[in-house]
TrEMBL record:
Keywords: Cytoplasm, Leucine-rich repeat, Repeat. It holds the Pfam family LRR_9. This is Leucine-rich repeat-containing protein 51. InterPro entries: Leu-rich_rpt, LRR_dom_sf. The gene is LRRC51. The lineage of its organism: Eukaryota, Metazoa, Chordata, Craniata, Vertebrata. The keyword Repeat applies.
Length: 192
């Protein structure tokens, strides 16, 4: 199967759906049956799913230990993963493992326990990230929450299920100039 054939199939594939399974640890995915949707999942000859979407919402995950390893056991092409739904879990931070999936375009993290707004900085390395949710986390209460996220992640076009407008971008830029101090550039002085 060529890469183009795979991409055409994977885009049309339903998600690998482990939502509402009371999953406590990522390793449980290897022994848990995914939910069945209206359309059956297609698998490779090795038995791995051909999808690009992984839904883990409405579980009790508090970390993503072994996430990459488990995902590589479940998906034929884990590097093509484009949509991860981790909403309504117990995550307190954005695990750096999520930043290793460079094709990620949709990331749902709403309804967790993410405490620090600075956690969003980790996602800036994801070149294709277009849709992000973070509402329902403690960080939502921080002043400038929406503006901070939008100026940190300028490629995001949908944030918390709302389209990002030109006015949102302008407001975020103004907020950034007023609230984020530029890094000082140190000039090395040659000593004689």
């Amino acid at each position: 199967m060529s890469k183009q054939d795979y991409m055409n199939i994977a885009v049309q594939e339903p998600p690998l759906d482990y939502s509402f399974r009371s999953i406590h640890v990522i390793q449980d995915l290897t022994s848990e049956e995914p939910r069945r949707g209206l359309r059956p999942l297609r698998h490779s000859k090795s038995g791995k799913s051909l999808t690009q979407s992984l839904w883990l919402n409405n579980n009790v995950l508090n970390d993503l230990k072994d996430f990459s390893h488990v995902v590589s056991q479940l998906l034929e092409h884990p590097e093509k993963l484009a949509w991860i739904d981790l909403s309504f879990n117990d995550l307190t931070s954005i695990d750096p493992v999520l930043t290793t999936f460079f094709n990620l375009s949709v990331l749902y993290l709403h309804g967790n326990s993410i405490q620090r707004l600075g956690e969003v900085n980790k996602l800036a390395v994801l070149p294709r990230l277009r849709s992000l949710t973070l509402h329902g986390n403690p960080i939502e209460e921080e002043k400038g929450y929406r503006q901070y996220v939008l100026c940190t992640l300028p490629c995001v076009t949908t944030f918390d299920f709302s389209g990002v407008t030109k006015a949102d971008r302008t407001t975020a830029e103004v907020w950034k100039r007023m609230n984020i101090k530029p890094k000082k550039v140190r000039i090395k002085q040659n000593t004689l």
